[in-house]
Amino acid sequence: MSQAKKWEPLKRVGIIGVPFEKGQTKYGVNIAPAAMRSAGLIEHLKTIEGLDIKDYGDIDTTAADADVEVDNMAHLSQVSACNKNLSERVSQVLKDGRIAVTIGGDHSIGVGTVDGHYNVNHDMILIWVDAHADINTNKTSGSGSVHGMPVALLVKELSDYWPYLPTMDWQVPKFSIKNLGYVGLRSVDNYERLAIEKYNIPTFAMEDIEEHGIRKSIHHILQVLDPEMNKPIHVSFDIDSLDSLEAPSTGTPVRGGLTLREAINLMEIIHSTGRLRAIDLVEINPALGDESDRKRTIEAGLCVLKAALGFSRRGTAPRGILDLPVQTHN
């Protein structure tokens, strides 16, 4: 009988900033990496005992090519150029033996993060945590915004549903939809629902999470995607998966989402597998809402990342110390 590989959580992290907003229409999501760093991203992660952190800086998001015309698909050349650079950087971080922590930016950057991860770990599984399924093609999208299309661009099963996409020759869809699971959906377009049902994607929308709880939901998805518990995990976490009361500063908020406590528990469970190798945090928009909204949203993002990387809400006893300090009295 073969035994599953013993995985231990990686204690080495590489941070990548992606100041990119052309996958959607609202100004401000491109300043999220700077806002997260200013809010003490590195300092917060340093509170996790033994975590080795390297900041790889921001991706160059400029496009050398003029924008190309593709029906109902805005800013394709810029989306493509950003994601090509991002894919290479994610692969570099993983080859350096670190968890790739990518701070967006809008969710179109999921094309680059997943592509870069797949190029290193062909057996990876993808957990897409989002209010939206992001599996539209340019033919089914109501907006033409690419942040609603990254899953459809990535999976090989949908490659025949796209026209030729100029500037995207670098990205050949190889990732299988059989290795995808959804958490937190509550705003799903008709053709997206059709794709979910056609390919039997393990999906826990909010009504399912209400019935089963977050723990059973993620355990079911992991069991379906990886019954032998030996595949690297990629989490692409859209902050709008949280209820808009928890994270108001985001471009497409939907009420009735995950509580922050549910999101933290979700990430704690994934961390405990030892198999997390990449996490994206996207769609924080510090330009939306007032100062209280911005602070609440950024703090929620920090809590999600800390939980994913090993922060314990129980607290951590000092290493190598077995007793409280004794005070002497004269």
TrEMBL record:
Alphabetized CDD domains for the sequence: Arginase (cd09989)
EC number: 3.5.3.1
One GO-annotated biological process of the protein: urea cycle
GO cellular component: cytosol; nucleus
Enzyme class: hydrolase
Presence of keyword Hydrolase: yes
Record pathway: Nitrogen metabolism; urea cycle; L-ornithine and urea from L-arginine: step 1/1
Cofactor: Mn(2+)
Keywords annotated in UniProt: Arginine metabolism, Hydrolase, Manganese, Metal-binding, Urea cycle
Any GO molecular function: manganese ion binding
Catalytic activity: L-arginine + H2O = urea + L-ornithine
Pfam families the record matches: Arginase
Record text on cofactor binding: Binds 2 manganese ions per subunit.
TM helices/strands, residue ranges: none
Family: Belongs to the arginase family.
Protein name stated in the entry: Arginase
Organism in which the protein naturally occurs: Parnassius apollo (Apollo butterfly)
